Amino acid sequence: REHHYTTEAYFIPxxxxxxxxxxVVLVIVMDGPANTSYLLLLHGITFETLTxxxxxxxxxxxxTAIGLVxxxxxxxxxxxxxxx
Length: 84
Fold this sequence. Notes:
By secondary structure, this protein is mainly β. The protein is 13% helix and 36% strand. The relative contact order is 0.26.
């Protein structure tokens, strides 16, 4: 999308994967025109959009929020993301 800027993508593997790249890719996107940010989840194999979720705050593209995601994953006992 025009004027939408992404942070670094992170891969979250499916714990029951039967093939490589089975999981989701998590990307934080800054929506320039709206001056907001959202999470974008892509299918790990096809890269089709699974869903988006608007964030309550604007996150600049220079900010790496993966530490927040990893902390949240650890608290919930789910695998932490890894770089694709």
